[in-house]
């Protein structure tokens, strides 16, 4: 088991990564002595691990489980409201605690419930996906709105993250690939050594060894921890975590949430951002290498044909990071060194059209 400590201006907590960590979950719960524990999970994760976690927690605390439908569609106001109703009807109180057992959707949804139920109760992230190595760390919790992804939410830190890699064994290939995109993102923005490690050790996403898996999770979390410790509420340097996300989120939203995985959208977004970076900042950046590697790994490498550039630009203008109809892009000066550049919608539309024609 390995430990990474997350230090923010508001809190400090540990991320534990390893195998067989259920006892560590109980130990962490004991630090807050909850009156009741609500386990929030989704229908797929519940089939594999829901009863196991409920049984173990119930040996020590009064615990109940709430299951939402699997998928991005559950990161909604309706699901958020239903969980709040369930907690109130079952007489959860301010001394209750919540466990988010699942991937990024569950972490964001359940975390937002925890942040707002009785004005805030303790919660623990128990990730079951590779993607959640990013979303489970840093305290951003939210639900989606038809007008944009993660538009309604809060900054609310968990009391800890228990990352048992045994829970990743049942992960479908497309979900594993989705999470891997965020590992690549972390390597690009802060850790060239990790990028080289991934290139050498992950030629395909089949049969990734436990040793490689644990290292990529730990190194990705360390990057996230470093950035979050400097900027908890995305007022400055934390925006670099959005590398690939400006276009990626627009693709997700325009296709309809759940029609493309988050990681596949981010992969397309990273390729576009790297292409811009190569064109505007550093012609030595490995754009072609990344493109070929992504193809080898099964990522899409171009914007879906059914989406127009105009649609995507209009969506990006509504991004939380955009101001006065100008769109901010996180770019790379070199691997591990980021910068940002603001584009008018016309400028970015021209660059995006040009890139799509090349693809």
From TrEMBL:
InterPro entries: Dehydroquinate_synthase (IPR050071), DHQ_synth_AroB (IPR016037), DHQ_synth_fam (IPR030963), DHQS/DOIS_N (IPR030960), DHQS_C (IPR056179)
SUPFAM superfamilies: Dehydroquinate synthase-like
Keywords, alphabetical: Amino-acid biosynthesis, Aromatic amino acid biosynthesis, Cobalt, Cytoplasm, Lyase, Metal-binding, NAD, Nucleotide-binding, Zinc
3-dehydroquinate synthase N-terminal domain: residues covered: 66-177
Cofactor names: NAD(+); Co(2+); Zn(2+)
A molecular function (GO) term: 3-dehydroquinate synthase activity
EC numbers, comma separated: 4.2.3.4
Matches recorded under CDD domains: DHQS
Primary role: Catalyzes the conversion of 3-deoxy-D-arabino-heptulosonate 7-phosphate (DAHP) to dehydroquinate (DHQ).
Family: Belongs to the sugar phosphate cyclases superfamily. Dehydroquinate synthase family.
This protein's name: 3-dehydroquinate synthase
Organism: Metabacillus fastidiosus
Gene: aroB
């Amino acid at each position: 088991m390995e430990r990474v400590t997350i230090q923010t201006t508001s809190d400090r907590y540990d991320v534990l990564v390893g195998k067989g960590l259920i006892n560590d979950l109980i130990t962490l719960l004991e630090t807050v002595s909850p009156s009741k524990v609500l386990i929030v999970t989704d229908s797929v994760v519940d089939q594999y691990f829901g009863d196991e976690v409920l049984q173990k927690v119930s040996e020590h605390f009064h615990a109940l489980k709430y299951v939402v439908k699997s998928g991005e569609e559950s990161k909604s106001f309706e699901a958020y409201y239903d969980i709040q109703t369930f907690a109130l009807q079952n007489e959860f109180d301010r001394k209750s605690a919540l466990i988010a057992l699942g991937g990024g959707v569950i972490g964001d949804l359940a975390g937002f419930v925890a942040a707002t139920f009785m004005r805030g109760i303790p919660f623990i992230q128990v990730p079951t996906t590779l993607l959640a190595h990013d979303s489970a760390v840093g305290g951003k919790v939210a639900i989606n709105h038809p007008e944009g992804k993660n538009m309604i939410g809060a900054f609310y830190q968990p009391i800890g993250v228990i990352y048992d890699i045994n829970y990743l064994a049942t992960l479908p290939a497309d979900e594993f690939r989705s999470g891997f995109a965020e590992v690549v993102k972390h390597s690009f923005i802060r850790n060239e050594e990790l990028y080289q490690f991934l290139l050498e050790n992950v030629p395909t996403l089949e049969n990734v060894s436990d040793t490689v898996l644990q290292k990529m999770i730990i190194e990705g979390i360390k990057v996230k921890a470093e950035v979050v410790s400097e900027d908890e509420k995305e007022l400055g340097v934390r925006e670099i975590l959005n590398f690939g996300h400006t276009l990626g989120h627009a693709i997700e939203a325009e296709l309809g949430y759940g029609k493309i995985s988050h990681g596949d959208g981010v992969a397309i977004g990273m390729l576009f951002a790297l292409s811009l970076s190569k064109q505007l900042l550093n012609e030595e950046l490995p754009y072609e290498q990344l493109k070929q590697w992504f193809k080898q790994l099964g990522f899409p490498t171009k914007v879906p044909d059914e989406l127009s550039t105009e649609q995507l630009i209009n969506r990006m203008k509504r991004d939380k990071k955009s101001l006065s109809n100008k769109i901010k892009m996180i770019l790379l000066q070199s691997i591990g060194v980021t910068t940002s550049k603001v584009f008018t919608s016309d400028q970015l539309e021209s660059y995006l059209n040009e890139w799509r024609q090349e693809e």
